[in-house]
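Colleagues,

Please find the record for the two-part complex below.
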Amino acid sequence: MKGIIDQLDKAFESRVRLGLMSVLAVNDWVEFGELKQLLDVTDGNLASHVSALEKKGFIEVRKKFVGKKPNTSFAATKQGKEAFANHINALEQLLKSQG
Amino acid sequence: MEDKTASLEALKDIKSMMERSSRFISLSGLSGVFSGVFALLGAAAAYWRVNIAPWAIRDTHTQFGTGKIVRIDYDVAVFLALDALIVLTCSIALAWFFTRKKALKNNLPLWSKHSKHLLINLSIPLVSGGLFCVILFYHGLIGLIAPSTLVFYGLSLLNAGKFTLEEISYLGLSEIILGLLSLFFLGYGLIFWALGFGLLHIVYGILMYLRHDR
């Protein structure tokens, strides 16, 4: 039991981060505004979760300028996708183990 | 026990977020049901008009026909075209209405990159098919029009199915099979139209409604 719980990645503990990684796992590059709308969070909330995951090396950030407006997009790194897949596996194991 | 509920919740969240973010899932099953009903009404109207009109060509086998060059009365052609146009307009209007309602309910945008992908991938084969049928009409190959509309419509749905609910792909496959079958029964285009645009829409519409809308 203990072993499985240890496999759950602390980085994905919050619902917002879980949602963020879910979106990035199945999409290439997703814009800030779209993520905000999908996850239903505020700018500041999203920004703090994004930077935490970026520090871990789980997501990449790309900044572009469309005219004068900054346009920020995000993508999951290979490392991030692997970590997320492991996290999902651990969740499934946990479900099975307790019958 | 708490861990179990929590991880089940988390997995559900993950799955729903993946779906919400990668496909256009607001497509309403009810719109399928209603377009099916409109199609059946339209087919009934066409049947009534073609059979009753005294100057329509008598031999029904050549009329909807054998693929040979046939004369089709101008009045009948106009009636059928108007009939189809009304069915199409009503279907699109209700599809828009129900889909918008579902999108609002799920708090998802109606006009997103996913709905754009969906429309583009639906439109290209569909418009090609439409032009193909116009050219068939130009050559007088009336009998081939019904099978062609079904096959092209099926291919369009199959193409669009990648960007929305999976039932759309299966509906597409069914339309293709029906279209190919109808090539063997050239005199019965109207019946196959009623089956393809009427019955199949109703069946898949109900299926989608039960699985996704409630």
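The helical segments of chain B are 2-22, 29-52, 60-63, 74-105, 113-138, 145-160, 167-182, 189-213.

Comments are welcome before we finalize the supplementary table.
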